Amino acid sequence: MALRVPFAAAMAVVDTVRTFAPDAPVRVKWPNDVRINLQKVSGILAETGGSGQDLWIAAGTGINVAYVPESVGQAATSLNILSGRVLDINEVLGVYHSSFENRLAQARKGFDRLRQDWLNYAEGRGEEVSVRVGDAFERGIFEDLEPDGALRLRLPDGHVRIIRAGEVSLIGRA
Fold this sequence. Notes:
29% of the residues lie in helices and 32% in strands. The chain is an alpha+beta fold.
């Protein structure tokens, strides 16, 4: 279940964006960003600890609602910009909270449906990407998500590499 939480959070952000900016071409970037036209609108961080009955999960979701932070290190946008109006933060948080609860319930039932929903919004699927894993970079085609949410990367030599942690960059795009 712990590995599903970031996907549930990302899809809750997608649901929230679609509520306030239904025409925005929202995409999820593996493993933890939500973007519109290559501009970041949200980032998700999840941490786990313990084991067995003592397992804990903490998930943090940042959504640019009213403004775009100046020091994010990449192009970004906000829900106010996307919607063309000044949104009530409590309304946005209410929509996100409700959607996150629904997406967590979906994740508890299994990963298949949540995984497919996420893939429907996946940025770069079927395209060449570069993945930074530690200090190394792997380049290949982002083929799919594994049943546990890992990225399946088809390398230039035809081999497949399964990546469970890393940072994806789209080749030729920001």
